């Protein structure tokens, strides 16, 4: 998904010209982008790293399930270090993702306060990024709010933001038996700029399955078992999701698009995100 959004942003000025031109005979020679390694990776406290690794592709190339599978860099070398140890991640099939191939660790588990560096190498190219796992923050309140005269509703949460420091958060949730993965259940990332050191409350919805096709968030339903991850993230991780969200909201509107590039913490021949999560985990049965 990250790869597709990056391509949309890269070529948006060309699309805007095509859409607004009155001359139907105009032709544009759109150059192919430079070959890049696209990283979508994360590590949580107490868990092994997971990395989805693909290459980019021109905006006007054909995209279907077969071509998406071909974008997976199955022969890449992916190395994770924590400043003391190092391991090479193993490519494994995982049908919870598409394409269903994920590089996973088996030696280094995430620890709060540590810095983790990921390096991906393929075809003479190399891309790397570093991230930290901030200390988790606990929720003080969590309960279900039913929509009147329906069998569905939202979840309300409250927590106290740690004082005297800048903090950034993501809220992820999945319904067991319905969702294969965790999805963003609010805005993609939030900063404590407006509630630093204070009690803060908010409502979450069942997150969208896709960042490409925007739509109305769904409600949780009575009988659902919801697994929630309340996550702390570092500033670079926040910057990625915040800029990603801006483009998702604005790309479909030529009068509002910022035309900016998504902020990435990946250096070298790559783009995307390598992020750490300090996770507080909650389980709720909707009644």
Summarize the structure.
The protein is mainly β. It has four helices and 18 strands. The radius of gyration is 20 Å and the shape is globular.
Commentary on this structure:
Helix content is 14%, strand content 40%. With 287 residues, the protein is mainly β. Strands 1, 2, 5, 6, 11, 12, 13, 16 and 18 form a nine-stranded mixed sheet that branches. Strand 7 and strand 8 form a beta hairpin. The longest helix is centred in the C-terminal third of the chain and has 16 residues. The radius of gyration is 20 Å and the shape is globular.
Total beta-strand segments: 18
DSSP helix count? 4
Radius of gyration: 20 Å
What is the residue-averaged pLDDT? 84
User: Distance between termini?
Assistant: 34 Å
Helix-strand topology string? HHEEHEEEEEEEEEEEEEEHEE
Helix content: 10-25%
Structural class: mainly beta
Unreliable stretches (pLDDT < 50, length at least 5) are 1-23, 211-215
Total domains, how many?
A: 1
Outline the fold blueprint.
Layout (H helix, E strand, L loop, with lengths): L1 H9 L1 H9 L16 E8 L3 E8 L9 H6 L6 E5 L4 E3 L1 E4 L7 E9 L5 E8 L2 E8 L8 E6 L5 E9 L7 E8 L7 E2 L5 E2 L7 E6 L15 E2 L3 E9 L1 H16 L16 E2 L1 E16 L2
Parallel strand pairs: 1-18
Antiparallel strand pairs: 1-2, 2-6, 3-4, 3-7, 5-6, 7-8, 8-17, 9-10, 10-14, 10-15, 11-12, 11-13, 11-16, 16-18
What key attributes describe this structure?
single chain; 287 residues; mainly beta; 9-stranded mixed sheet; 18 strands; 14% helix; globular; disordered N terminus
